[in-house]
Design goal:
The protein is an alpha+beta fold and 141 residues long. 39% of the residues lie in helices and 28% in strands. A hairpin with a 2-residue loop joins β3 and β4. The protein is globular and about 40 Å long.
């Protein structure tokens, strides 16, 4: 993983205001509900930068910075695919279409969602819950 970590100003310039707002929403949700390591790297063909949320050698999701948007990727194994199928009616049609179009490899189904603006936040959060239950305890006041 690279040590180049773009700051918020750089991210907003790359993503644009709408996609940056969506980026902030999903990263804030992950940080609030999941205890994860954050690993920045080069994104290759998927974008300019990659941010992976991992714990114990397992990736929750990866975000790919692009110009004007970002990619949100989760990889569902067999159990997660079964869980998604059971909850399918609760997802927007656009998410179901991306799920159906995604290729299933030996290590799972790789689902990439393109995010250009806020609006998919609830669906992305639900996709994360299919992948893994939140593991960060709420702090008591």
């Amino acid at each position: 993983m690279t040590e180049i970590v773009p700051d918020n100003k750089t991210l907003e310039k790359l993503l644009g205001k709408k996609a940056f707002a969506a980026w902030q929403d999903i990263t804030a949700h992950i940080r609030q509900h999941y205890e994860m390591d954050e690993l920045w790297g080069k994104a290759g063909k998927a974008g300019l930068h990659e941010l992976k949320f991992r714990r114990g050698g397992k990736t929750l999701c990866a975000l790919y910075v692009r110009e004007g948007s970002f990619g949100f990727m989760v990889i569902y194994g067999k159990a997660e695919r079964e869980a998604f199928e059971q909850q399918r009616a609760q997802f927007p049609e656009s998410i179901c279409r991306k799920y159906d179009e995604s290729t299933t490899y030996h290590d799972g189904k790789w689902i990439m969602i393109d995010v250009e603006a806020p609006g998919l936040g609830d669906a992305l959060e639900q996709m994360l819950r299919v992948k893994r239950r939140p593991n960060r305890r709420e702090k008591q006041a």
